[in-house]
Specification:
34% of the residues lie in helices and 16% in strands. The protein is an alpha/beta fold. The strands form two sheets. A seven-stranded parallel β-sheet has the order 1-10-9-6-2-3-5, sandwiched between helices. Strands 4-8-7 form a three-stranded antiparallel β-sheet. Bound molecules: 2-phosphoglycolic acid. It catalyses: alpha-D-glucosamine 6-phosphate + H2O = beta-D-fructose 6-phosphate + NH4(+).
Length: 268
Amino acid sequence: MKVVIQDDSPAVARYGAYIFREQLQKQPASVFGLATGSTPLSLYRELINSTRRGEISFSQVRSFNLDEYMDLAPQHPQSYRAFMDREFFNQIDIDTANTMVPPGDAANPLTACSEYENAIAAAGGIDIQLLGIGRNGHIGFNEPTSCLASRTRVKTLTRQTIDDNARFFDAGEFQPQLSITMGIGTIMEAKLVMLLATGKSKAKAIKDMVEGPVSAWCPASALQMHPSTVVIVDEEAASELSDPDFFKHIEQQNQALLARLKSRRYPS
Ligand code: PGA
């Protein structure tokens, strides 16, 4: 697991956007796994601005979102489909027909889950899977005790997640208790996993993910077993790590190595 510690949240977004841009420049028809929540918003803003400047294009991209509330219609303003349209898809040159979000209003959610898995496989798998992390260590809606080999399925939300997300719903408004989420096994098949976290409230989850045992109690800890995961955090989210300086040192070494490779001075 590569852990990159940046000064603040805008720097986290810039670092993440750089990786997406490189992927798009290398492979315009990339497949992206995308996430909702507050954390990815600045990254999406960076990518929108890059698209407007003509540096990148999403015209050949296909995307699969991690999760969706069950029992919310796609047009409901708090659905993750509506979030993605509003915050990202409507502001870039992606063909919305190529943007997939699990269907929270499917007549048969169980069939919809296996169809979602099949669609990811038919697209050739996910090149970059973007993730946030819950305060309880969830990724997607894979809450603590989730099977680490799970596939896309219906998942019950914990009280903590419902409370964390209550701010988006009006008082007295129906708030879903169930979701459809990619499983941890599904996420683990992405070629690159990029997890972003900012703020003090994520510090414990980041410590558990990076240093703790691989455990269903911290679903994100499964990423310790993924061969290509980059965790990009700000100082606050990194503040409970035992040895943040080590990760900063590794990053300096990595950047120096990259510079040598780019200037072709690396001894072959
Ligand atoms: P947040 O959510 O980005 O709004 O903190 C992250 C998550 O719950 O996965």
